[in-house]
Amino acid sequence: MSEAVATAEQIHGHDDHPAHLQHHFVTSDQQFEASKMGMWLFLITEILLFSGMFVAYTVYRVWHPEVFQGVSSLLDWRLGGLNTIVLLASSFTVAMSIHFAQKNNQKGLVINLVITLLCACIFLVVKYFEYTGKFSHGIFPGIAYHPHGDYAVYDIPYAGQFFSIYYIMTGIHGFHVLVGIGVFIWITIRAIKGDFTSAYYTPVELTGLYWHLVDIIWIFLFPLLYLI
Amino acid sequence: MSATQTVGTESGRSVSAPVNYLNHDKSIKGWLYTVDHKRIGLMYLATVSIAFLVAGLLALAVRTELFSQGRTIMDADTYNQFFSLHGIMMVFLFIIPSIPAALGNFVMPIQIGAKDVAFPRLNLASYYIFVIGGVLAVTGILVGQIDTGWTFYTPYSSRLGAPVLFLTSAVFIAGFSSILTGLNFIVTIHKMRAPGLTWNRLPLFVWSIYATSIVQVLATPVIGITMVLLFMEKALQIGIFDPALGGDPVLFQHFFWFYSHPAVYIMILPAFGIISDLIGTFSRHEVQGYKFVALSSVAIAFLGFLVWGHHMFVSGQSVVSSIIFSLLTYLIGIPTGVKVLNWVGTMYKGSISLQTPMLYALSFLILFTIGGLTGVMLGVLSVDVHLHDTYFVVAHFHYVMMGGTVIAALGGLHYWWPKMTGKMYNETNGRIAAVLIFIGFNVTFFTQFIMGSKGMPRRYYDYLPEFEIYHMISTIGSFLLAIGLFMAAGGLIASFWRGKKATSNPWKSLTLEWTHTTSPPDPHNFHHTPIVTRGPYDYHLAPEIFGEPGGDGAVVSAQPDTDPVQQ
Amino acid sequence: MAHDSHSGHHIVSQRVLITVFASLVALTVLTVITAQFVDIGVLNLPLALSIAGLKAMLVVTFFMALKYDNPMNSLILGIGVICVTVFLVFTLFDTAFRGDMPNVDSQTISDTEGRNLNQEAREAREESAGAQH
Amino acid sequence: MGDKGTFWLPESGSTLSPGLDSLFYFTYWISVVIFVAVTVAVIVFAIKYRRRNDSDIPPIVHENKLLETAWIVVPTILVLIVFTWGFRSFLKLHSPPANAYEIQVTAKQWLWDYTYPNGKTSTGDLVVPVDRPVRLVMTSTDVLHSFFVPAFRVKQDVVPNRYSSVWFEATGQGEYHILCTEYCGTQHSGMLGSVIVQSAEDFDAWLQSGVEDMAPAEYGALLYTQQNCNVCHSVDGTRLVGPTLLGLFGRQTTFTDGTTAVADENYIMESIVNPMAKIVEGYPPGMPTIYSSFDSDQLNALVAFIKEQQ
Known about the structure:
By secondary structure, chain C is mainly α. Chain C is 61% helix and 0% strand. In chain C, helix 1 packs antiparallel against helix 2 (44-63).
């Protein structure tokens, strides 16, 4: 390697390092691309995490199709549909906030982040009413499933399995929404402080990717649990 | 070799104790808050060594109990807990993090010419998440009796009390650490390579860590959700896995093995990488079929997802399923077999030096061949019906996991020890230990093949009289093995006080950690990012290392065991 | 560096984003209508899943801007999806083809744990004798 | 029983064994050949090409394409042969003849119960006729178990809430081990039994025989092993999961609630029928309630047997 005199620093220069660039990266782009790839890898781990529940759902649905079709009508498609629209809207505003960050539009960025945050909260509030409504009728997961009153007719075998899967899937999804809210609060504060420019908006981009995935999971949960 | 020269002079000439990653900040805080991949690697090494020691002592206790029929030193419940803890700790707290997180963390970024991994803080977080997982596991052990085996089959596990909640949480959290490490490494290998270090110039260890990371990222989330569901099964009785509640225990086995079979490749693929590097270095030969060895690691990583059902031939899964899984199992056997040919081929007409790491590599070749071939026997549908859940299986996976992974890890540890610590271990002691481990291992586990195929089931506290002679031999072997392991460990640890200072390249290897860093390396690995102009095993293109005309052979001394920084 | 790609910085126009959002809402309405008010028998399930898949594609392509991104990230997503498919399909190879044996009738199951199983779980088990096969 | 098998395999006792053994030895010998080839190559190369000079740089060796191709093609052919062979014998394992004699098997922690078509039951020892296909229909009442008869080369997990089955045709009279191979708790290794293969006449006689003509203590001794009492209660004073039966009768016993009692007939009977009523101090409340269905003959027999253990 005698001829290898030049070093990477000499090629890239070592002077004009922006504040956000960590020492072990050479360029901002390298750092941005690395972060984004890391985020995508994280997203597929999320997909695989949910896959276990989708497999459980499919297996039990194949075994007891009529039960699953029957008790899914216990879930109110209007509330589910409302939440779908709410999440889609928040996905849209996240995409818009990235758009504005790229265009250096500070106001647009903050407004869209705030709307996203509100949508996420609305989603959880609706979910809260759905859960408490179910609990009040004795619709619990697994062994505790014991509907009473008008719902007593739904006291059929394997309905408990359906609601186990329902509560775990929507519960873990809801947990992801909760985490999303936390991250959005942090991002919004940073955005208000003016941390993000068209040159550096990686956290917004990454949070956006995460949020879109939460949306996609719901896109599948909605028809599987509420509609069919 | 100008870059090496730079490193040697800049860091070493003027001061008597050159700055390196070990001595630049000796405070406790400097270790606990470090984001340096080398220090994190060492912290992992220390942690998994403790796990290995504890789990190994449990194994010795289990073997001692089995020395004679009936009660030898403990009762059945204790025995059942001991073998379970041995399995759980070895798998989740030792083998899975051992090579990737300990050696991989230390070596891989340097091998690709990076200053650090892509996400250093995430790397530290992974370590602490792993520690939390370990602490939870220990808590579970202290809280109560866990005797499920490492497989946690329902409904036995889902009916166990609170300890299973700790253990499932521990596995979930340790898994999270494994995911983050894998993610970090994939991005690092993609985005942080030094200029000129193209994919086909990557050392094979990097390739294998890359393949391992893919499996870690794709498979580990599934054990996560499995553990969540098992947790819920215990806590809320959700009825997914427990047949008494309408669930299906075989479904649990699908979930479990969807992770745990690929996890076998998390364990063995890094070993392939180490062995490739060792055989290349100590034969001073380009690794035969470099591209095949590299790409087949990645191929095996993916194929590993298609064969999990071969653990379930007698579980009651459908016959169709068993047949498909059996056929696919053979697909994965072929590329693995070709790798063995490539390693043997690398030795052909090489210049072979039988130093300690190479002895481990040769042990690996022999032991892994046995492990692989018995794996093929177990893949045969009807033969597996007879052999399933017997000592034959126990022996098979110990040949792969211990004879494969642990032996490779020991080889790698001896190989990189001078780089990590700056000290040479005692070569004679190292060689004796390697031979002793090889003998002890075979005495312990080969007998288990025989009793297994004769019908000795695994996880048995007591056994029929005809198996006593095999158990006795096996137990004696396990003590030999333990002596060998303690000798190896002792030799390495003694090097801190008695070892000679290591040169920057005692083995005359060609990968960047040897050619471009001091021993031990600078805190930032390289003062200047190296530019790579040749492959990792192009010994014929490296006359400067071997003092031939045209090179500046003085940079790295022709004699090993001399001090590089005094040059 | 090997990966000095600027593709990650593509700006998706507002018009595209709005169009995608409108289509997503429209598809949501469509899936509710087809699933709740139109009975097309066995086709309801695949139809709902196809619509969900289409919606997911739209989000991935435009909101997540995968269309303009480094192809490596698309590959990562693709591998993830393939893995999920393998997990699902291979598990179904077992669970969907098991029925060579009838199920146990619940009389043979005694609760050795002495656990307090409530009535519906017992009924569930009894039903399993007929339903699972 | 003894050790009548080959070096690797146990004795062969069913019609399924010979085919499976030849497949085992086929793969075994192929493996031996491959293993020897690899090992010899490693050793020869390590000696022949050892480093003679520290700055030695060996010549480049070009890959031998022919050898590599052969190394791929030959094993592929071999594994396909092995797969097909294994596949066919696996199907055989899963296709019991239509006229197979059917016995119900119930596994529980930690014993095997058998019910014959005429209603006769046995525990631990499975009695079957020679030269006649027998199909076992198995289920478990608690956790997973696995039914394994090494001599017959059959094994099948036993799953709660589901039936699984296994079949075999024994070829010689004698006694063969039954082992549980799926971990099932404390006494997993004690969950043993025997297949007793009898001639058709003996089997029929056994099937019709009763137990009336036995002395109570003798019948009790039979029950003690048949019902796997011996797994948890020794008769030689050894401490197992439960208290030993040696000297139990007439012993002053202390319970977990602090009370004491002298073990008499009524106490023993209560302990069998309702084991949770009084828990002996220092032992876990682990005795299953499955024995509550014993009839008075069986209880009398057991009490008589326990009385004799002094």
